[in-house]
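Ticket #4471: structure export looks truncated?
Reporter: QA, pipeline team
Priority: medium

Steps to reproduce: submit the single chain below to the structure queue and open the exported record.
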Amino acid sequence: MPESTPLLPKVNRPPHEHPIFHRVCHSPWLFINQRSLLALRGFLAIYMSVILVLELSFEIFQRERGRYFVFLISNFSYAIQTTYYWITFLWTVQHYMTPHRQPVRIAGDDRGFLAKVKAAVSIPTHTDVNSKRRIAFSLFYTTAVTLPFVTTVVFWLVLVSSHTYLGPRAASSAVPMEQVLERDSLGVTFLRNFLIVNLNAINSVIALLEIMILSSVRKQKPFGTHLSGLLLLTVLYLAWAGVIGRLLTGKFIYKFLDPDYHGLRAVALVVVEMVGLVTNMFLFQRGLHLLRERLTWKAECDRQGH
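Actual output as written to the record:
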């Protein structure tokens, strides 16, 4: 089994020599071998799953507002990030155990449910840059490493300053935020703050580690396809939180999505600002990829004595 096979960038390397499916299974740094990477991905997948379960339990049993869980931007982003870590953990396990595996194919006499599940969770082997599965995962990767930064900025610069970070109930005139805070016990306050930090700060630290240390994924191309995909997801989320959320919960999840708060023009401005923020965070994470590629390229050149 390979102990250390980082995909370091080399001089005059042909483009797309390694597919993205394999690049997420290799750290670009020699000090992180595949066994260490496997342990890190497994730990993060389990840890983030525990955080999501704690958040859901806290919303249901402590705040009695579990119906808002799927509409909050921090939960939406964190769920995508957690899913990404489970997928890459399973792929890293398979790549570690069988680095030269053949693609899983469903034969004519083996089309049962388990066979289809096995094929679905198996690491893809497509090397064609235009394969649908490769493009889909590339878009998913870009989403998983961009949304955490968006969530962090939205929470600390928008929700905290507008006193809506405790969600719809805290923003309700019937239950002022100060009363919600005062009635919490020390244990509940600690848990609430612990979840807030994980969902809105640690999430970005994990995304930073993913880009800079855990994966060898390069800046994804084409640029327009990935940016357009992110912006489409942003608009769909705002529709999900603002329209579907209002229909299912009876309240606007965030007051800045309520046209009665400052009017439709203000809501339209929010959409434009969110699109601008996502675009900036997309460029930010691409800059991090460029920085890491340059650092690993320099390290490889130094190692080879160039």
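Status: closed, not a bug. The export was complete when the record was re-opened. Leaving a note from the reviewer for reference: DSSP finds eleven helices and no strands in the chain.
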